[in-house]
Automatic annotation (TrEMBL):
This is FAD-dependent oxidoreductase. Signal peptide: none annotated. It comes from the Bacteria. Pfam families: FAD_oxidored. One of its GO terms (biological process) is NAD+ biosynthetic process. Gene3D superfamilies: FAD/NAD(P)-binding domain (3.50.50.60). One of its GO terms (molecular function) is L-aspartate oxidase activity. It comes from Sphingobacterium zhuxiongii. InterPro entries: FAD/NAD-bd_sf, NadB.
Length: 620
């Protein structure tokens, strides 16, 4: 009897080492760019999360994939992206110290990016990261979710939480849950985009297995062993550095090609599209083992390109930086996926919503939770049968991503981030870039935290509540290049833009598109009337607003049209509290002062909107 009891006791102990249980508020699957930011933002709102990350690093494409050159948002350092950049500046010694390559204004060593992100997470008391951990069997429960976390040594922990965030690189969680999604190039009938194909297909963008090289000094020979199946003709023409967004002819400069991804401390990011190491591998629907096998082909492509750089181009002193990543082969831990599954979401963010945001039926611009300024950039060099769409010449202004793109159309309790949000295939070419994905992650964390605190499903949370939380943490909800987070009226100008009362001006510009609010520009009575008509239908037949610039007297008079009797003196006091002093009631008002008055007097940002940006209270 004692032997049986002892055997049962030992068995119980062994089982408790294999199975454990944890409870938290949010489960975040993936510690990449979005997942890390989601955890930090949720923590700063007082909500706990557990992050399940398969590698030993944080940052995903920023670090673990080696894409350590930030594309876009240089003049829109929104929220946690801006904070991360400031820490890079501090580490390297200022902004100039990270302007080491011509593809970006911010380049860094992947290992340093990981170090900074780990420090940022380590400063938060509400985050637990489980590294080298896979996930399995996510299940909906009465109170939220249960998921299995499987550690490197085989230990299985069951985790329970109220909200689940899919922050995987390829949208694997939503696929596991059979949440509907899109994959590949879309049809016109789906997206209503003029540039879309008549019929869709499953073609995705090329991926890249990046590698980091290091300059070992003139005279050094770091040439690798000639890779199998090496053919120099595969990379002939790789030195063309002409801008694909222009119509300029080829410009061959091999050294400039390499300095495209020049990193601090004499390192180089090898992530080159033109006859470089891009490769077409559609592995999204494959199993993990099938993916690993297929990705060996991507690594071989990159090794052949490295050998070409060393042997054919003569840069023998550039060798693989074997100390950059915690891997034996010197490669990053994951490839750079440019495209993923795309969620069938509450909001399908398509090209027309960027090109003409004020002219579409959906006013998605009012629901923004992240911003971007990069152009539509697709990589299809390595798939010969891809339909010819000159994506990079589709000119767009900067934009904001609607909150409804993070929420499944018909599935509760799940938030989707990274590159798997509800956007069209074309728009993914812009939203896939690092600062946008960081912003999407921050918004995911804010949405999840608000849902937990209010005991609601993510789909039930007020868009305005999430936007307000983001603004409190210096994140942009409108892509205004001339209203930085340091602006004393940052919140007011962002909120007024999100109501549509005063609109920004979008400008397609090179590789860093723009939207200007023009805070110091005068506002005409007619411009204000146009904005007010969005909320007060009775004003549609009011023709008392002229093209003359507003002053305090005419502003007071116009507010009476919407039943707000505010004296000139009261308006002056509102401005005085914002250190915007007007002693002359005839002085012209600019967009800054009008925005402040509208925010304080009307508070239209406080009116609830739906996922299409329309007022929920139709009687307002």
């Amino acid at each position: 009897m004692k032997k049986i009891y002892l055997l049962c006791f030992v068995l119980f102990l062994s089982l408790t080492q294999v199975f454990g249980q944890l409870k938290t508020d949010i489960i975040i699957v993936g510690g990449g760019a979005s997942g890390t930011m989601a955890a930090i933002q949720a923590s700063r709102l007082g909500v706990k999360s557990i992050v399940l990350e398969e590698t030993v690093w944080l940052g995903g494409m920023l670090t673990s994939a080696g894409v350590s050159a930030i594309d876009g948002n240089h003049k829109m350092p929104s929220g946690l992206w801006g904070e991360f950049r400031e820490k890079l500046y501090s580490h390297y010694g200022g902004a100039a110290a990270v302007e080491t390559g011509w593809v970006s204004n911010t380049l860094f060593e992947p290992s340093i990016g990981n170090k900074i992100l780990q420090e940022m997470v380590g400063q938060e008391s509400n985050i637990q990261v489980m590294f080298e951990t896979t996930w399995a069997n996510p299940v909906k429960t009465a109170n939220g979710w249960k998921i299995e976390a499987r550690g490197k040594k085989g230990k299985i922990i069951h985790i329970e939480a109220k909200v689940l965030i899919d922050a995987t690189e390829l949208g694997d969680v939503m696929a596991n849950l059979k949440v509907p999604y899109y994959l590949g190039m879309d049809s016109k009938s789906l997206t209503k985009e003029s540039f879309a194909l008549n019929e869709g297909n499953d073609i995705i963008q090329d991926l890249t297995y990046v590698i980091t090289l290091k300059d070992f000094g003139q005279g050094a020979d770091k040439t690798i062993k000639k890779p199998k199946n090496y053919d120099p003709s595969e990379f002939a023409g790789c030195c063309d550095v002409s801008d694909p967004a222009t119509h300029l002819k080829n410009n061959n400069d091999c050294y400039k090609m390499l300095t495209y991804g020049g990193l601090p401390n004499n390192k180089f990011m090898i992530n080159w599209p033109k006859k470089g190491n891009d490769i077409y591998l559609n592995i999204i629907e494959k199993s993990n083992s099938e993916r690993t096998k297929a990705l060996e082909e991507a690594k071989q492509m990159t090794l052949r390109f490295v050998y070409y750089i060393q042997h054919e181009l003569g840069f023998k002193h550039l060798g693989i930086a074997y100390d950059e990543y915690p891997t034996k082969d010197g490669f990053p831990m994951i490839p750079y996926h440019r495209e993923s599954r795309r969620l069938k979401a509450k909001s399908l963010f398509a090209l027309q919503h960027i090109m003409t945001p004020f002219e579409t039926d959906e006013a998605y611009y009012k629901t923004g939770i992240a911003v971007g300024d990069y152009t539509i950039d697709h990589h299809h060099y390595k798939y010969g049968n891809a339909p010819e769409i000159d994506f990079v010449k589709i000119r767009v202004p900067s934009y904001n991503v609607p909150m409804g793109s993070l929420i499944p159309a018909e599935f509760e309790g799940l938030i989707v981030s990274e590159k798997s949000i509800g956007v069209s295939n074309i728009v993914n070419g812009a939203t896939r870039l690092q600062p946008v994905v960081l912003g999407i992650g921050q918004a995911s964390g804010a949405l999840a935290a608000v849902a937990v605190k209010q005991n609601k499903q993510p789909s039930e949370v007020s868009i305005r509540d999430v936007q307000a939380a983001l603004l409190d943490h210096k994140a942009y909800i409108m892509p205004y290049i001339d209203v930085p987070a340091t602006d004393p009226q940052f919140k007011e100008l962002q909120k007024i833009g999100a109501t549509g009362l005063l609109r920004g001006t979008g400008i397609p510009y090179k590789w860093a598109n723009q939207t200007w609010f023009y805070p110091e520009r005068e506002v005409s009575q007619y411009e204000l009337m146009q904005g007010l008509r969005l909320y007060y239908p009775a004003l549609q037949t009011n023709w008392d607003a002229s093209g003359e610039a507003l002053d305090l007297e005419s502003m007071s008079a116009m507010l009476k049209y919407v039943k707000k009797d505010v004296s000139v003196e009261a308006l002056a006091q509102i401005l005085a509290k914002e250190n915007l002093v007007f002693t002359d009631h005839k002085s012209k008002l600019n967009r800054r002062t009008v925005a402040v008055i509208l925010d304080k007097v009307l508070n239209l940002f406080g009116q609830e909107i739906d996922y299409a940006g329309h007022l929920k209270n139709k009687q307002f």
